[in-house]
Amino acid sequence: MKKRKHETLFLVILHTLLFRRRKQRIHRFLTLASALFAAILCLTLFFSPPIHQHHLINPISFINGTGFHMSLQQDHIFRVPMGGGSLSGDVWISKQSKFYHGCSDSSNSFPTAEVNTHPNRYLMIATSGGLNQQRTGVNIFFYPNSRAQSLIENNLYPLVVIVDAVVAAHILNAILVVPKLDQKSYWKDSSNFSEIFDVDWFISRISKDVKIIRDLPRIGDKIITPYTTRVPRKCNAKCYQTRILPILKKKHAVQLTKFDYRLSNRLTTDMQKLRCRVNYHALKFTDPITEMSRKLVERIRMKSRHFVALHLRFEPDMLAFSGCYYGGGDKERKELGKIRKRWKTLHARNPDKEQRNGKCPLTPEEIGLMLRALGFGNDVHIYVASGEIYGGEETLAPLKALFPNFYSKDTIASKEELAPFSSFSSRMAALDFMVCDESDVFVSNNNGNMARMLAGRRRYFDHKPTIRPNAKKLNNLLLHRNNMTWEEFASQIRTSQIGFMGEPMEVKPGRGEFHENPTACICADSEMDSGAATISGMGEASDGQVGEEDQEWSDTEYTENELETQ
Predict the structure, then answer these.
(1) Are residues 331 and 430 in the same domain?
(2) Phi, psi of 222 (to 5 degrees)
(3) Of 220, 328, 357, 383, which is least packed with CB atoms within 10 Å of its CB?
(4) Is the same domain home to 476 and 442?
């Protein structure tokens, strides 16, 4: 009996020892597994790409019972109102605009075409790119999938080329031959000058300043063959007289190629005013383009008395060129990196630095938040001039949630109506340009070619509001918006946008491109308390106070790199 008890006790002790050892082994295994998991987690976090919260699309998903849009990230703090608040009645006017008007008449000392023109001097201009380049002078190529709307930015730029060509002809005492539009570039647009602009109007309106003919004349049975050359970028009057005039005297006909950014901002007041007479009075689109754009504007105004035109500029090619990062991970880096390789001489950029310096286009959602903070409610109607948005409808969704009355020319006109224009990039660009110009408020997402041209035009004609995001200041606000109330956010947005709303005199005379800030052609009315002085002598030249420096990055840099690529 005692023996059996001892055996039982021995087995119990043995079992206890074995159970303890097994428990210790399990504990050691769990400890080791936990340490291994923690190490893997740390490595994953260390090597994963950084999240740029500022540009992540954060859709505004629903409306609560109090009438506020709510952000899902912190719905107890950052609530976006549906309405524009107390400012909603003041967003459609420029407070000081009634005191200023466009003035581009020449002085009595400015020589007329009859006195200035030499009969055997002919100037021809070879434009590059589309309409935008040919009005000013830049050629641009785009990511094929964003082609449909990137043309707006490029194909309106020829307008400035034409303007500058008239001024160059006057400097050289030459007869200008109607410019030939580029028909061989990426756009393959076969349109000629007369299919976009009213040629007879152009020739007659500028006839007192520069003689213009349609084609080079013949000498006997021979057609004059022009001598082909080019001038440096931003060449001033003395530069033209030194480099081109001797050739013109000898050859009688000169064709200037690559005529983009080939005329300086540093010109006399009379020459700047000539620029304005050409740009704002002599260049008129053809009747079909004018009529179609008028219909588009009328259809929008049938729905709303006022409307905003928005140039989003969020196409893949622009984002790739900017070197910015929008939170799309490896997929975004691969897609935009592939496009970026098109620019052979483009240096690598630090996305965080570009963002801090305000050189990254805002996302559609961020543009929408800015507009709401400025007083635009969800009942505001928006016309969008933009191409294939990077990220498609998913990227546009937050903007459409903020502003459901959302249009483009494709949604307010039928395919049949757009058929005469849709195969021609320059004509489609002209439609968007005119609708944006007729809008009550124009909003650009960067200081690109189209934005600058429209800003200058809208300053000249009654200073209609033109909003450009102050991206450098807005960046930090947008990045930390969920750490503040809507009221705080909106107040700081309004403060940051002072000087970026298209008000008179907000751009210092002599700053920026002349086509954006035509101070030589803006006069102050005598009723102003500050004196009746025109501001025409403050921004142009007395041989040249208009600076071409101190500009934030814009499509100008993009354009110049495109030319090198070409």
Answers:
(1) yes
(2) -105, 140
(3) 220
(4) yes
Report the C-alpha dihedral over residues 535, 436, 60, 479, rounded to 10 degrees. Answer: -40
CB–CB of 244/254 below 8 Å? yes
Gap between the Cα atoms of 446 and 557, Å rounded: 12
Full domain range(s) for residue 343: 97-101+288-526
**254, 283, 312: which is the final residue of a domain?**
283
Q: In this structure, is residue 23 part of a structural domain?
A: no
Cα angle for residues 182, 185, 190 (degrees, 5° grid): 55
Regarding whether 295 and 256 lie in a shared domain, the answer is no
Tokens of 380: 């505001």
Kindly report the number of other CB atoms within 10 A of residue 91's CB atom: 20
> Encoding tokens for residue 12?
């119990």
Tokens describing residue 431? 């439609």
The reply to whether 256 and 405 lie within a common domain is no
User: Residue 65's pLDDT band (boundaries 50, 70, 90)?
Assistant: very low
Pairing of strands 308-311, 382-385: parallel
Sorting pLDDT into bands at 50, 70 and 90, what band is 16? low
**Residue 144's pLDDT is what?**
34
Residue 545 falls within a domain, yes or no? no
Neighbouring C-beta atoms of residue 530, cutoff 10 Å: 8
* pTM (two decimals): 0.78
Which CATH number does the domain housing residue 250 bear?
3.40.50
If asked whether residues 394 and 485 sit together in one domain, one would say: yes
Specify whether 348 is located in the same domain as 368: yes
User: Is-contact 166 447, C-beta < 8 A?
Assistant: no
**Residue range 244-255, pLDDT digits in tens:** 999 999 999 999
215 and 295 inside one domain: no
Domains contained in the chain, number:
2
DSSP codes joined into one string, 353-377: HHHHTT-SPPPHHHHHHHHHHTT--
Burial class (CB in 10 A: 0-12, 13-18, 19+), 67: exposed
- Which residues, including other chains, have CB under 8 Å from residue 18's CB and lie 6 or more apart? none
Distance from C-alpha of 375 to C-alpha of 469, rounded to nearest angstrom: 15
| 307 and 172 together in one domain | no
